[in-house]
Amino acid sequence: MAEKNSIGQTVLTEQNILELIYQNKWKHINECLVPQELVEKYNSIISSNKDNLEILKSKIDTTIDQDLYDQNNRLNWFMPSEYKQFDIENYVLGLCQTPEEKQRVDYELTLYKSHAMMDVLQFLKYMVDTLRKNNIVWGVGRGSSVASYVLYLLGVHKVNSIKYNLDPTEFLR
C-alpha cells in the first residue's frame, strides 16, 4: 500500500511501482510522487547500460519468420530447471490405475511426442503445481483440452475423458 506524505500526496516505493506496472495501471504513476532516489537509480541503470541497449537493439531482427520465431521460443520455457528435467512420461504413467488408463496415456503420449509437445506437458505440470501452491483456483476445463486424459491426470482440467469417451485427437488436431 502506497503511503501519503505530510501534505497528502501519494509516495510510491519501488514495490508499489512494480505492482502498478503488473496491474497495467502504470499511467497512475504520474499522479504520485516517486522518491528521488528511485528516479536516480532508474536513470543510473539506463545511462550505464545505454551502450548495451544500443547493441541489443542492433541485434534484434524484425524480419524474422513467425514459424522460426515460434520454434526458437518453444525451447525457452520460463520454468525452473527441475521441471525442464522432469520425466513427465513416467510421472503420468505412474498415475494410471487401470490397464485402460495406461493404454490411453501411452497413446496420448505418442501423440504429444509426434507433435513435439512434451515440453508443454512439463510446463503444465509446473503451472498446476504453482497454482496449487499459491491456492489459486482455475476452471474445470474448456474446449478441446478436455479430450486429453493426460491433461486430466496433470490436473489441468477436471473432465475424465475416458469416462466420457472423448477422442484425444480432438485436442491435438
Report on this structure:
The protein is mostly helical. The chain has two domains: 57 residues, no CATH class; 92 residues, no CATH class. It has nine helices and two strands; from the N terminus they run E-E-H-H-H-H-H-H-H-H-H. Strands 1-2 form a two-stranded antiparallel ribbon. The protein is elongated. The N and C termini lie far apart (47 Å). The model has no long low-confidence stretch (mean pLDDT 83).
Spatial gap, N to C terminus: 47 Å
The helix count comes to 9
Mean pLDDT: 83
**Largest sheet composition:** 2 strands, antiparallel
Order of helices and strands: EEHHHHHHHHH
* Range of helix content: 40-55%
The figure for the number of domains is 2
Quaternary form: single chain
**What percent of residues are in strands?**
under 5%
Question: Rg, please?
Answer: 23 Å
Low-confidence stretches: none
Helix/strand structural class: mainly alpha
Shape: elongated
Strand order of the largest sheet: 1-2
